[in-house]
From TrEMBL:
Family: Belongs to the cytochrome P450 family.
Main localisation: membrane
Cofactor(s) annotated in UniProt: heme
Protein name: Cytochrome P450 72A14
Places the protein is found: Membrane
Binding residues annotated for heme, in chain numbering: 464
Organism, scientific name: Dichanthelium oligosanthes
Gene Ontology CC: one annotated term: membrane
Length: 516
């Protein structure tokens, strides 16, 4: 009986899936789209039913994942973006692959990437994140388009201004002090110890964003972000199942996701209500991101003559969830790759430490001092170039438009492969795969031949809102670590960069730390 019901359910799901594919195919008509692009000289793979190149992409990635990589090699684009890498090699920098019935055009020419991301005439949109996923991880400003996006971005921007970030500095220094104390305690009386720094740095950036976002409501903030982190894992698990309509089934996974979402919303509503009461009673604080967001929201409403706040409670909740999702993992992998690179290149570790000690001595870092950190900044940019946390950006045409001499019909996905561009010798020179922070000595725009070609934080109006936040946090954490420890690669470290949601070290980041 139970098996019969299960088979019936599988048949229904199979039927739904086939209907969905047929509808998608009929609306997009992949052969027509492919013909239109090929007729204009664009080449690439042919459309394969039903998944396009997605299965091939997964197969290539899985094969690359098992290959050992030399410790000193930074030539990662073939490993991290194998489908793009092979297609560009065979068909050129502007070529075509498929996601199901949708053509994906690879643009690995920085000039075209800047043109797309600048989106001067509003021809491009971000790829749509499924609504259920948005609800879980919080789409916030990154999930909106047009006027709604512009309004949200205007309200959020002030919270990330440099002078506001000054107030968040104690969040960064406190969290890093706690991390350093933990590492020192774990060493006991010994001088050196192996530590997998990646989970440690995830805790650091998770805690830093909790403190910076919620300040006085830290304990609830930590609880929220802990659940949010579980949501991200559950969401990844759910998307990997590839079952249409899965979210509506009363499975254990779905029940857990819904219970988590309810708990987060309850906690957030409580904090927001408390802040609103404090603001009404004239006790407004402007120390944390949530305060700044709420004040900016009220100011925007006053300026536009509206009696109601421009962003609703749900909007604010969405933004806060997004800050965690967008800011925690990216900054932790940046710091992780930086410690690994400085372990592989001790001469740069020495130069960075000399600079930190010259600027701060053994004292705690401050905002003015971080502006003087030239070597540290060059190191961070070079790490972001070689190991960009976000390896690819995507846009979609939604009306016919011309780009680089080719007319794109609506519904074409554009792949902007950050890793491949960052490892292109035509753009960066023959030494492209070497760790050479000195290429950033005169800033980002002078680092490449074709300027600028650095897209780790995106480009144009939708450039990362949190880049100052992330760089400040990374500078403070790195300075304090350099003040207290010297470090090198542990023999148990395996060099295996792998793209999950961000570019991660597949087997951890084991380094030998030594107290100074
Ligand atoms: C090293 C750290 C980080 C990296 C590499 C990074 C990278 C990026 C990139 C590439 C984009 C553009 C995506 C696109 O155009 O499709 C982006 C957008 C965004 N980032 Fe970051 N990010 C980092 C840290 C942060 C932090 C700390 C926050 C917030 C606390 C944050 C919040 C956002 C938001 C809200 C957007 C969406 C902006 C919009 O759509 O207007 N990011 N980030």
């Amino acid at each position: 009986m139970a098996i019969g019901a299960l088979l019936e359910l599988l048949c229904v799901l199979g039927g739904l899936w086939l209907t969905w594919r047929a509808l998608e195919w009929a609306c997009l008509n992949p052969r027509r789209l492919g013909r239109a692009l090929r007729a204009q000289g664009l080449h690439g793979t042919a459309y394969r039913f039903p998944s396009g190149d997605l299965a091939e992409e997964a197969r290539l990635l899985a094969a690359e994942r098992t290959k050992p990589m030399p410790l000193s090699s930074h030539a990662i684009s073939g490993r991290v973006q194998p489908l793009v890498y092979n297609t560009v090699k065979e068909h050129g920098k502007i070529s075509m692959v498929w996601a199901g019935p949708t053509p994906r055009v690879i643009l690995s020419d920085p000039k075209l990437v800047r043109e797309v991301l600048s989106n001067k005439f509003g021809h491009f949109r971000k790829a749509k994140i499924p609504a259920n996923l948005l609800k879980m991880i919080g789409g916030g400003v990154s999930g909106h388009e047009g006027e709604k996006w512009a309004l949200h971005r205007k309200i959020i921007n002030p919270a990330f201004h440099l002078e506001k970030l000054k107030k968040m500095l104690p969040a960064f220094t406190t969290c890093t002090s706690e991390l350093i104390k933990r590492w020192e305690d774990s060493m006991g009386s010994g001088k050196a110890r192996e530590i997998d720094v990646w989970p440690e740095l995830q805790d650091l950036t998770g805690d830093a964003i909790s403190r910076a976002a919620f300040g006085s409501s830290l304990s609830e903030g930590r609880r929220i972000f802990r659940i949010q982190s579980e949501q991200v894992q559950l969401a990844t698990h759910m998307t990997n199942l590839y079952i249409p309509g899965y979210t509506y089934l009363p499975t254990k996974l779905n029940r857990r996701i819904k219970a988590n979402a309810r708990e987060i919303e309850g906690l957030l509503k409580g904090i927001i209500a408390k802040k609103e009461r404090a603001m009404k009673n004239g006790h407004a604080d402007d120390g944390d991101l949530l305060d700044l967001l709420m004040q900016s929201n009220i100011k925007e409403s006053k300026d536009s003559g509206s009696s109601k706040p421009m962003m609703t409670m749900d909007d604010i909740i969405g933004e806060l969830k997004l800050f965690y999702f967008a800011g925690m993992e990216t900054t932790s992998v940046l710091l992780t790759w930086t410690l690994l690179m400085l372990s592989m290149h001790p001469e740069w570790q020495d130069r960075a430490r000399e600079e930190v000690l010259r600027v701060f001595g053994k004292k705690q870092s401050d905002l003015d001092g971080t502006h003087q950190l030239k070597v540290v900044t060059m190191v961070l940019y070079e790490v972001l170039r070689l190991y960009p946390p976000i390896t690819v950006l995507e846009r979609q045409t939604y009306k016919e438009m011309e780009l680089g001499g080719i007319k794109y019909p609506p519904g074409v996905k554009l792949l902007l492969p950050v890793v491949t561009i960052h490892h292109d010798p035509d753009i960066w020179g023959k030494d492209v795969d070497e760790f050479k922070p000195e290429r950033f000595a005169e800033g980002i725009s002078k680092a490449s031949k074709e300027a600028p070609a650095f897209f780790s934080f995106g480009w144009g109006p939708r450039i990362c809102i949190g880049q100052n936040f992330a760089l400040l946090e990374a500078k403070i954490a790195l300075s304090m670590i350099l003040q207290h420890f010297s470090f090198g690669l542990s023999p148990s470290y395996t060099h295996a960069p792998f793209p999950v949601s961000t570019l991660q070290p597949d087997h951890g980041a084991q380094i030998m730390l030594e107290k100074i």
